[in-house]
Amino acid sequence: MKKYFNILRKCQLFDGIDDNDLFKMLTCLGAKVIEFDKKYTIIAEQSKATYLGIVLSGSADVVQIDYYGNRSILSKVLTSEIFAEAFACAGVQSIPISVIANEPSEIMLIDASHILHTCSNNCGFHQQLIFNLMKILANKNLEFYERIEITSKRTTREKLLTYLGLQAKRAGSNQFYIPFNRQDLADYLEVDRSGLSAEISKLRQEGVLNSRKNQFELL
Amino acid sequence: MKKYFNILRKCQLFDGIDDNDLFKMLTCLGAKVIEFDKKYTIIAEQSKATYLGIVLSGSADVVQIDYYGNRSILSKVLTSEIFAEAFACAGVQSIPISVIANEPSEIMLIDASHILHTCSNNCGFHQQLIFNLMKILANKNLEFYERIEITSKRTTREKLLTYLGLQAKRAGSNQFYIPFNRQDLADYLEVDRSGLSAEISKLRQEGVLNSRKNQFELL
DNA sequence: GAAATTCTGTTGAATTTTCAACAAAACGGA
DNA sequence: TCCGTTTTGTTGAAAATTCAACAGAATTTC
Fold first, then answer.
1. B74 with B103: CB under 8 angstroms?
2. What is the pLDDT, as a whole number, of residue A202?
3. Which residue among A64, A118, B85, B149 is least packed, with the fewest CB closer than 10 Å?
């Protein structure tokens, strides 16, 4: 477990918890680590909302697939980030999304009820974890507002430019990398992949941007 | 303040707080009540994220308007529900949405920092409020997942049917009222109003649904 | 109760997206 | 390095959306 401490220290869930307590806490929480290969399902749609997950290495996608087979990427989860906490905290019966490993990944799973309910050992860290969860959930909410700002645009061009604008702002530079390939970006923006490729080409011709693979530059 | 107690008891933020403590608590939190007429701005975009709000009477819309003037309705806030808590809890500099009164409404505003930080009076209720906020934020996250499930559909018809299906499920009946007029529904589904009207007419002709104003029946 | 305002449904044209199919490029494994 | 697989870009046709304009219905205001 100790080999993950450098990652866990960066995880917002453990803000304000000092290293000495972390190991004890993980034991008390019954945290377990599982490895997933690329494309493997970490959390399956319609399963029970028991666990929240932390990405120790690799990355994962939170996706939704409707009955026509159309895929939406709801969010990307990178190393040291947490996922599925909303379902576990809200105590839903059936999870409406899937979480899929994006590459070979090590995932820590924690039974959320162990965090939310005081344990018999009377550990003192529950309050801190609940406060951290509250912060994390508030920030996830903000991510959704951002995503809606993007996907509420009516054209592929507008969605793309809104997305790229936000990424540039985040990177603090007109040159930046995005964490998506074309199909994934299309599934995030809720548009057709081929139309997206065409739009990127057009914007390049118009001199609005440069791009090479997943590197973009706004001009 | 006491006249609002029946509403406040229904507000999730005060779950587990007993009536005797509620009044004291509201004073300690510096809660204030303000009335807003229809269409008045309760929280303005780009303002500082200081307050969270509770609807004591009436209702409000959380909206986003882009530089083309296109309006999105992100969510509807009904009596006894809470809004803007994510921005206050996450401590953002500038709020990316506006909250607009949908009818004459009484709104309670609470400075979120008074909830998140223990006060000098050393009140014992902060932990409970933070736990409640965590629950509320988790549930708001679920609402977003639902909204994305709806708006990720590519056609007006699919968006509408997905939305109506969820409403029917929620109502536990094929007959139900929706809280939107046509324009508002279009702004929630992210589609064109006239196209939405046309689609509803077509579905009625096809025998898929009945509707009269904001009452719908799925057949 | 009349007038003014708001809301809803309809229509056709212009724009845009989706879909399917294919070829070129990039990537990964043996 | 070669081969098979995956990813990306292109294209044209079909389908759907948006936009603008208008008329009738419903609602509000005075």
1. no
2. 92
3. A118
Strand D contacts (CB < 7 A) among A residues 56-115?
none
Is the same domain home to A162 and A81?
no
Q: Quick one: how far is CA A2 from the chain centroid?
A: 24
Measure CA of the first residue to CA of the last residue in chain B; give whole Å: 46
Count other C-beta atoms under 10 Å from residue B184's C-beta.
19
Residue A131: its chain B contacts at CB < 8 A? Answer: 130
Contact B138 A85 (CB under 8 A): yes
Per-residue pLDDT of B63-122, as tens digits, reads 998 877 789 999 999 999 999 999 999 989 899 999 999 888 999 999 998 888 876 565
Domain that holds residue A35: 2-139
Contacts of A146 in chain B (CB under 8 A): 96
Q: Note whether A135 and A157 are same-domain residues.
A: no
A74 and A159 assigned to the same domain: no
Rg (CA), chain A: 19
Q: Mutation test of the interface with chain B: which of A70, A134, A140, A142, choosing the one with the most B Cβ atoms within 10 A? A: A134
Residues of B in contact with A141 (CB under 8 A): 86, 90, 137, 140-141, 144
Q: Test B130 with A134 for CB contact under 8 angstroms.
A: yes
On the question of pLDDT at B212 being above 70, the answer is yes
A65 near B CB under 8 A:
no
B111: phi then psi, degrees, rounded to nearest 5: -70, 115
As a residue count, chain A comes to 219
CA geometry: angle A77, A165, A10, nearest 5 deg: 30
The CA-based dihedral angle spanning residues A189, A191, A194, A195, taken in that order and rounded to the nearest 10 degrees: -100
8 A C-beta contact, residue B175 and residue B216: yes
Cβ contact, residue pair A152, B127, below 8 Å? no
Specify whether A102 is located in the same domain as A43. Answer: yes
A191 touches strand D (CB under 7 A): no
Q: Which nucleotide is nearest to A194 (CA to C1')?
A: D9
Residues B50 and B123 in one domain: yes
The model's pTM = 0.90
Give pLDDT tens digits for A34-84: 999 888 899 999 999 989 999 999 999 999 988 777 899 999 999 999 999
